[in-house]
User: Fold this.
Amino acid sequence: MKKIIIYSVVLFTLLLHACEKDNYDAPQSELTGIISYQGEAIPVSYNDVIFELFEPGWQLRDPITVTVDQDGSYAALLFDADYKALFQANQGPFLAPSDSINITVRGNTTFDIEVLPYYMLRNPNLSVNGRELNATLNVEQVITDDRARDIEHITLYVGKTLFTDTRTAVAHEELSGSEIESLDNVSLQVTVPSLTPEQNYIFARVGLKIAGVEDMIFTPVQRLEL
Assistant:
């Protein structure tokens, strides 16, 4: 009987210790920032562009995947620690640093990640006349050396919600790269179709597809009254 009691106490102690090890506090520190070029956020399509965070010393753990929001921002709840951020190949409409990026998180931390986009969309102007949506913008080619890539197409997208891109558009108008006469004055127009259920506003943005690059770069989403 005495042996049974001793074994029970030992087993209870081991179980208690195991539970204490498993019951870690949840991460409390928020890491936020933007994916930027010269301090300007790079808008993308939602849930498409990611990067990974690694915590040195925990190599056997899976990396933390961070998704870039459509306005170019990101956020993650983390433990205070030193991390390394890494973009996998072919992520985003830009060239990311090839080496990992050191990020120290101590409490709420802001850290912008600078990248080199192939193109930037400048001075977008979207307006509605009746049910005709018009867009004008300038395109800046940032990478002009042997890493440069052509424009596959520039497209004006119309959506019913804030999340407007190739997957959710109810109408679009595409201009192929060969049809662009001048990067300094790009113009597109599309007719807004009847919406079900009916609403008196739309969301719109322009996206640029780079040849050989999956992810597009966009203008910010705009809400426009019909």
In short: The longest helix spans residues 2-22. Helices lie at 2-22. The chain has a mean pLDDT of 90.
